[in-house]
From TrEMBL, chain A:
Record-annotated ABC transmembrane type-1 domain positions: 80-290
Taxon lineage: Bacteria, Bacillati, Bacillota, Bacilli, Lactobacillales
Topological type in the membrane: Multi-pass membrane protein
General function of this protein: Part of the binding-protein-dependent transport system for phosphate; probably responsible for the translocation of the substrate across the membrane.
Molecular function terms, GO-annotated: phosphate transmembrane transporter activity
Official protein name in the record: Phosphate transport system permease protein
InterPro entries registered for this protein in UniProt: MetI-like (IPR000515), MetI-like_sf (IPR035906), Phosphate_PstC (IPR011864), Phosphate_Transport_Permease (IPR051124)
Main location: membrane
UniProt-annotated location(s): Cell membrane
One BP annotation, GO: phosphate ion transport
Keywords for the protein's UniProt record, in alphabetical order: Cell membrane, Membrane, Phosphate transport, Transmembrane, Transmembrane helix, Transport
Protein family membership: Belongs to the binding-protein-dependent transport system permease family. CysTW subfamily.
GO cellular component assignments: plasma membrane
From TrEMBL, chain B:
Keyword Magnesium in record: no
Highest rank taxon of the organism: Bacteria
Organism: Limosilactobacillus ingluviei DSM 15946
Pfam families recorded: ABC_tran
Domain ABC transporter: from-to ranges: 6-245
GO annotation, cellular component aspect: membrane
Protein name as annotated: Phosphate abc transporter, atp-binding protein
Lineage: Bacteria, Bacillati, Bacillota, Bacilli, Lactobacillales
GO MF terms, alphabetically ordered: ATP binding; ATP hydrolysis activity; phosphate transmembrane transporter activity
GO biological process entries: phosphate ion transmembrane transport
UniProt keywords, alphabetically: ATP-binding, Nucleotide-binding, Phosphate transport, Transport
TrEMBL record, chain C:
Keywords: Cell membrane, Membrane, Transmembrane, Transmembrane helix, Transport
GO annotation, biological process: phosphate ion transmembrane transport
Ranges of residues in domain ABC transmembrane type-1: 63-281
CC annotations in GO: plasma membrane
CDD domains named in the record: TM_PBP2
Pfam families, A to Z: BPD_transp_1
Transmembrane segments: 12-35, 67-88, 100-125, 132-150, 259-281
The protein, known as: Phosphate transport system permease protein PstA
Length: 297, 250, 294
């Protein structure tokens, strides 16, 4: 090696490869980042048009109970309220069941139960939401009709479908949360003479509280954003619900049915994009809630 | 005095704000084994990793590291070529999940060597130098991860030898191994210094005295004493070195 | 003491009772879907086209479209997600930019698929003029799957021991080579598992597709292998109704008299396919991991 300086500081194939690799992968990440920014910008730009053109007013949008795009009245309150009701009720009913299964599997039943159940839960998590919608349409709606009367379509059926849909996800996340509690803590508690329930109640559940709450919020976020399954069973009447039997419409179901029937640029279409923006904002809020809960632990 | 393979001037290393090695000056003689000893946490590995730029992105290294008259601790240095000339063997054996043969010629292949006879020759020569050839010559195509820990470590040495570096850095290469494997590797090192310059970190003083020509003693990130091994062990000039050697710590 | 034990028995009973009810609901759900669906699944059902107004139609086109969409989506999503994951796992410095990009991926994962579908409609279908097409659908599904895929790839890369990377770097390899030749092969089982699970999600997605890939299938020619020909089954520019969208559509439009039979049959096929995806993800992951260790 005559000229060490050139050799040790000069260009080489490796340097080129390294530069190219770094460039290529950072490009992929930047594309994703740019995509997210674009999505947010587009949806915000479209979403505020209703108000910037003067066709709709913010107060009317959030507080008026009348959604009559044909007549130029854009009150989104019925959909916002309905979306929140079905989500919260499904989450509240789902949680005890999800928690019970998770506790049974991690604390009570022998390990073989978990081995058997895990693939089943995985499959249920993977079942597409239209299939849950189909079950709603063919089982839940007729059942509601029998039991409660009316058409069967409406809030109850929507809650039923969403409950079925989010339970598997909530269960599997609750199992993870419970399993993250160290074994030693349980043994220590049992060693002090605590019964199983006392251990669960005083040690395991408090330690897993953050994870369980996250599971619930995650399930509710999914329910809030679900479109087709809800649209199939809720009856699609954009009115403020008066009882649990009444037909109603969520943000997502109105978007699903409406977007194809309105013309771009019209006030009726802009109103739909405003609903989409509300949906987007709510999803981000759910995500924020989950982050806060996880951070607190 | 010997020829100098690597000269370190005013080298200091810090992890973030925390200085770990301070003001080290030393010259590593060529074709010799130099041992770096000192209590755990005294910065031996940190210094060693700086010598072939393995601390890039992990720590800030200042000062000069001269190799063939070139300061390789500068931003314009081609670190890949530096590491090809100054190879490294780690504490834990790290065979790649592929055959023994492929492991040995890994570096060569990436540099574009395709000639089968060259590759075959290099595999045999490197494995012989690492004293592993007899044990594996009949199963070169089997997985390297099926070898014993000692064999794996010798394979990693062979893998480094196959790239034909000038200097080999070793960070406690035997501390994860049993005594028999340790003996085999120590015997191997004695052979290797004909061809390579070896810098080895060890926390085992007996090992340093058995295998090295030169020994450097470190304490809290500072080079305390650097001498031919027999002089350092028989006749340390620093009280701190003497205390460490006789087991009186702190 | 007595009281605590009583409480324990009561609570255990309650938990097991609730869990039992949940299990019963779930088991009857799956059983119901299979019992009502499977009788309708015949060779004829799988291999003939859907009919518009009469009964007796099949699901061949929808089934093909679903699989083709899986392939198209993964072809775009996997390279993108893997690239981003490699950057995040191997190169990304610890700074604000990296955190912002991680946050962006997190935000993306929280968007409902109908919202992504509407974005796709706005941008891919209308603005880019792709019309209702497989390509527009694939792009929308790519967006939906990027967060999960990226996370799966990053986790798989992170599971490769740091020592393997060190060894590669110590031989003078650039990080890019270390990543491609040493890290990636060992991360492959995890990456493949993630991709297959994504495939299952793509297969069942409907909300993001009704306004991107469309709700109709034009007559396609399954003998024309030229993807640029307008009638070719491989043409990514044609509108394509998938199996999941089909289930939704026959039930909301109700134009065919045997909607219930067709949709329950289609649902059974959907579930079985996803079951196969799940099982093969698990099986392939295990197989590759074992082969790597050998
Ligand atoms: N990657 C790192 N980041 C921060 N501190 C480190 C890192 N590696 C080592 N250190 C610290 O640097 C000091 C010296 O470590 P090291 O060089 O490994 O010592 P030795 O090899 O002599 O045992 C120790 O205090 C150790 O905790
Ligand atoms: Mg060390």
């Amino acid at each position: 090696m005559e000229n060490w300086h050139t050799y040790l500081t000069g260009a080489s194939k490796e340097r080129q490869q390294e530069r190219r690799g770094r460039w290529l992968t950072s490009l992929a990440l930047l594309v994703i980042g740019a995509l997210v920014v674009t999505i947010l910008l587009f949806l915000i730009a479209k979403g505020v048009r209703l108000f910037t053109t003067g066709e709709g007013k913010l107060t009317e949008f959030f507080f008026s109970p009348t959604w009559a795009p044909g007549a130029g009245v854009f009150g989104a309150a019925p959909m916002i309220v309905t979306s929140l009701i079905v989500t919260v009720v499904a989450g509240l009913i789902g949680l005890p069941f999800a928690l019970a299964v998770a506790l049974a599997v991690t604390e009570i039943l022998p390990p073989v139960a978990k081995k058997l159940l895990q693939p089943v839960i995985e499959l249920l998590v993977g079942i597409p939401s239209v299939v849950y919608g189909l079950v709603g349409l063919t089982v839940i709606v007729p059942a509601v009709r029998q039991l409660v009367g009316g058409t069967g379509f409406g809030l109850v059926a929507a809650v039923g479908v969403l409950y079925l849909m989010i339970m598997p996800t909530m269960t599997s996340m609750a199992i993870e949360a419970l399993q993250a509690v160290p074994k030693q803590q349980r043994q220590a508690s049992a060693g002090l003479g605590a019964t199983r329930w006392q251990t669960i109640h005083r040690v395991v559940l408090p330690a897993a509280r953050g994870g369980i709450l996250t599971a619930m919020i995650f399930g509710m976020a999914r329910a809030f954003g679900e479109a087709l399954a809800v649209q199939m069973v809720i009856g699609n009447a954009a009115i403020m619900p008066t009882s649990l039997q009444s037909s109603a419409a969520t943000l997502t179901s109105v978007l699903t049915t409406g977007m194809g029937n309105t013309i771009m640029g019209t006030a009726a279409n802009d109103a739909l994009w405003a609903l989409a923006l509300v949906l987007l904002a709510m999803s981000l809020l759910f995500n924020l809630g989950m982050r806060l809960v996880t951070k607190k632990g | 005095m010997n020829e100098i393979a690597l000269a370190v001037q005013n080298v200091a290393v810090a992890y973030g704000e925390k200085p770990v090695v301070t003001d080290v000056n030393m010259e590593f003689p060529a074709h010799q084994i130099t041992a770096l000893i000192g209590a755990s946490g005294s910065g031996k590995s940190t210094l060693l990793r700086s010598l072939n730029r393995m601390n890039d992105e992990i720590a800030t290294v200042t000062g000069q590291i001269n190799f063939h008259g070139v300061d390789i601790n500068r931003p314009e240095t081609n670190v890949y070529r530096v590491r090809q000339q100054i190879g490294m063997v780690f504490q834990q054996p790290t065979p790649f999940p592929m055959s023994i043969y492929e492991n040995v010629i890994y570096g060569l292949r990436l540099r574009g060597e395709k000639d089968r006879t060259v590759l075959d020759q290099r595999v045999e020569a490197s494995l012989k130098q690492a004293a592993l050839w007899e044990e594996v010559k009949d199963r070169l195509q089997t997985s390297a991860q099926a070898l014993s820990g000692g064999q794996q470590q010798r394979l990693c040495i062979a893998r480094t030898l196959a790239t034909q570096p000038e200097i080999i850095l070793m960070d406690e290469p035997t501390s994860a191994l049993d005594p028999i494997s340790t003996n085999q590797i120590e015997a191997t090192l004695a052979q290797l210094k004909e061809q390579f310059t070896i810098i080895i970190v060890t926390h085992n003083m007996q090992q340093a005295s058995r295998i090295s020509d030169w020994t450097a003693y470190f304490e809290q990130g500072k080079l305390v004493e650097f001498k031919p091994t027999d002089q350092l062990f028989m006749n340390p000039s620093e009280q701190r070195t003497a205390d460490y050697l006789s087991g009186k710590f702190g | 003491m007595q009281k605590a034990e009583k409480q324990d028995r009561l609570a255990t009973g309650l938990i097991l009772g609730l869990a039992g009810i949940a299990a019963l609901i779930v088991i009857s759900l799956v059983a119901y879907l299979l019992i009502t669906g499977l009788p309708h699944v015949s060779w004829h059902f799988l291999t003939s086209s859907a009919s518009a107004f009469t009964s007796g139609g099949g699901i061949f086109d929808q089934l093909f479209n679903s699989f083709y969409l899986v392939i198209l989506t993964l072809a775009v999503a996997v390279p993108l997600a893997l690239g981003a994951a490699i950057y995040l796992s191997e190169y990304a410095p610890q700074n604000g930019w990296t955190n912002a990009l991680r946050l962006a991926i997190e935000v993306l994962s929280s968007l409902p698929s109908i919202v992504i579908g509407l974005f796709g409609y706005l941008v891919f279908v209308l603005r880019w003029g792709l019309d209702f097409s497989l390509l527009a659908g694939a792009l929308a599904l790519t967006i939906i799957n990027l967060p999960l895929l990226t996370r799966a790839c990053e986790t798989a890369l992170q599971q490769v021991p740091a020592l393997q990377r060190q060894a590669g770097l110590g031989l003078g390899m650039p990080k890019w080579q270390v990543t491609l030749k040493i890290v990636l092969p060992q991360a492959l089982p995890g990456i493949l598992t993630g991709a297959i699970l994504s495939a299952g999600r793509i297969f069942g997605e409907a909300a993001a597709l009704i306004y991107t890939a469309g709700q109709s299938t034009v007559n396609v020619d399954y003998t024309n292998w030229n993807p640029f020909a307008p009638t070719s089954f491989l043409n990514p520019m044609r509108p394509a109704e998938t199996l999941a969208v089909h289930i939704w559509k026959v039930n909301t439009e109700g134009l065919i008299p045997d909607a219930a039979a067709v949709s329950s049959g289609a649902a059974a096929v959907l579930i079985l396919t996803i079951l196969i995806f799940n099982l093969s993800a698990r099986g392939l992951g295990n197989y590759l991991a074992r082969r790597l260790r050998k």
